């Protein structure tokens, strides 16, 4: 669980500060999806209030991914 948490923390700081933990981390959307999966794993191992906080963070990531997907579909459709 500690290694998952460390990985998530590094990814979040990377997005906030622009300091890369990987030489080629890929598109931001992929990194957020990766963090979402790691949060899922952590939530399964946690309990009580801790699990609630982890799931809330995961839900925020999912909302971000859905918004981005909607924005990309709007751009792909172009003006009517």
TrEMBL record:
Pfam families: DUF7553 (PF24430). InterPro entries: DUF7553. Residues 1-27 are annotated as: Disordered. It comes from the Archaea. This is Uncharacterized protein.
